[in-house]
Design goal:
Elements lengths: L1 E6 L10 H12 L3 E6 H8 L10 H4 L5 H26 L4 E5 L5 H12 L4 E5 L20 E3 L4 H14 L8 E4 L5 E3 L40 E3 L2 E2 L10 H4 L5 E2 L2 H15 L3 E4 L8 H14 L4 E6 L7 H10 L1 E9 L3 H7 L5 H14 L2 E8 L6 H13 L9 E4 L7 H4 L28 H17 L3 H15 L1
Length: 484
């Protein structure tokens, strides 16, 4: 069967989409003919320079603002590229089109146009927003979306396609919802989580031009660099109350074996001539012992593999462990620091203190590993004192941080603990007992969207004036030399 898999804006520009690469690997193993398109990166390169900022972390949240998307992003970015997207897809003459969707409605517009141009085509959507835990009715099966994949997609999509092949229509397999003959939605029930990740197919990046990908946010700003996304685990052992991601993975934290990880990295490095991998999972160091076992395999292979990704501030990240990581090719941790207020860290269930964060950052600086941090302004309970405490911490530790931290204002993401129980966190609710996800405010009025955005702007203004990481270290060394 011919299947086309596509990603749409907005996702990262740093590397090709791992989601559809994993689906492609599974479907090709099943014997299907698969073609992948990354319309996100194609559109980024197609728009004018002034519109490219919409792919930055700073402006990216505007894609989720329904009115801004409708009035500005859609007419200036999406509408101008829709016909091109649909033409490329239909030229492949697929029986099934799988669209990886996100909160921005780009995928909905594409699906609607495809159905208009070819009503017989079968469309399947999937992605984080389709997870059952959200239960978002706008991502249910419809006359446009013939089927929806919930949660992990590889095995579910494989069975969906098989059911179409066998019966001529999608059947409600575990992990998916479909429309039956009467046009009614039928849910196939939850799929048992795949605990043994070693059994999953390798990703297939054959259709992606790796030279197109560019980092628009970090220290590599404006530079093209060949890097592949990779995952060693699914889920997260942490339970931060502002985060929804760990729930989408059925709460359970699962990992590939260290040997499987090393073998897969070496295979992809050889096939695609790459040496760098971005670990896109929630947390790379969720199992400290297995992390060190992986280091042993990569050190023994000695193939010059480099990798980096999100991690959790952990007191076990001492000089010895970090030194071994560096020897294995690990280069950069991205930490979700969020705040440097011990009160807020405890309220969020981060599981560590400001002192632990300080120690880990200094350990990384001592052995020469890079580090970046993410921050959130306006967390429930944040006062101006907490805010200034975070500023002071960042200033004192800026030599250990590679560049300007990524900053976002606190959003009550559907399904998170703070969204499910807003009153418990001092958040005002409406008559329906719910709080607005974006424009929420505290009961006492000290935390509003205006204040959160104001604090975000203050941080950006300060951070742009500061020197960070190696640049700061060189400046400090120069001053020491001048005074010697």
């Amino acid at each position: 069967m011919k299947i086309v898999l596509v990603s749409v804006p907005l996702i990262t520009t740093r590397f090709p989409p791992l989601s559809i690469a994993l689906l492609a690997g599974q479907l090709k193993n099943d014997g299907h003919e698969v073609k992948c398109f990354d319309f996100n990166i194609e559109t980024y390169h197609a728009v004018s320079e002034d519109l490219k900022e919409y792919w930055t972390y700073y402006k990216g949240f505007q894609w989720m603002d329904n009115s801004h998307f409708r009035d500005y992003i859609y007419p200036n970015i999406i509408e101008k590229n829709l016909i091109s997207w649909a033409t490329k897809i239909l030229r492949e003459n697929p029986r099934v089109v799988g669209i990886s969707v996100n909160e921005a409605p780009s995928g909905k517009h594409l699906a609607r146009l495809l159905k208009k141009l070819n009503p017989t085509i079968k469309i399947v959507i999937g992605g984080p927003r389709c997870s059952k835990i959200y239960d978002d009715k706008t991502f249910y099966p419809s006359q446009i979306n013939d089927a929806v994949v919930h949660n992990e997609g590889e095995l579910t999509l494989s069975e969906l396609v098989k059911s179409l092949d066998n019966t001529g229509r999608f059947q409600p397999v575990p992990g998916a919802s479909v429309l039956d003959e009467k046009g009614e939605i039928v849910y196939g029930g939850l799929r048992d989580r795949q605990m043994d990740l070693d059994l999953m197919a390798y990703p297939d990046f054959d259709d992606f031009n790796l030279k197109l990908y560019i980092d628009v946010d970090t220290i590599h700003h404006g530079e093209y660099h060949t890097c592949l996304p990779f995952y060693t685990s699914r889920g997260c052992p942490a339970r931060c109350n502002f985060c929804m991601d760990y729930k989408m993975w059925d709460v359970y934290y699962r990992q590939k074996s260290p040997k499987r990880i090393a073998d897969e990295m070496l295979y992809l490095a050889d096939r695609y001539n790459v040496k760098e991998f971005h670990l896109v999972e929630l947390i790379f160091n969720g199992h400290h012992k297995k992390m060190l076992e992986l280091c042993d395999y990569l050190i023994e292979a000695n193939q010059g593999i480099n990798f980096f990704g999100h991690g959790r501030i952990d007191p076990r990240l001492d000089v010895e462990s970090l030194s071994k990581l560096k020897k294995a090719g690990f280069r950069w941790f991205i930490f979700g620091l969020e705040t440097a207020s011990n009160k807020l860290l405890k309220n969020m269930r981060k599981g560590y203190s400001k002192d632990t964060a300080s120690r880990v950052l200094k350990n990384m600086g001592e052995i020469g590993l890079s580090c970046s941090v993410n921050l959130i302004t306006g967390l429930p309970g944040e006062t101006w004192h907490d805010f200034y405490e975070t500023i002071h911490f960042l200033y004192e530790h800026r030599q250990y941080i590679s560049g300007i931290p990524a900053i976002s204002e606190c959003v009550l993401i559907s399904g998170t603990d703070i969204a499910l129980s807003p009153e418990k966190f001092g958040i005002a609710v409406g008559p329906d007992g719910k709080a607005d996800s974006y424009n929420w405010k505290s009961v006492d009025g000290t935390n509003t969207l205006e204040i959160r955005l104001n604090r975000k702007e203050i941080l950006f203004a300060l951070f742009r004036e500061w020197k960070w990481g190696e640049e700061l270290k060189k400046e400090m060394e120069k001053k020491l030399g001048e005074t010697a």
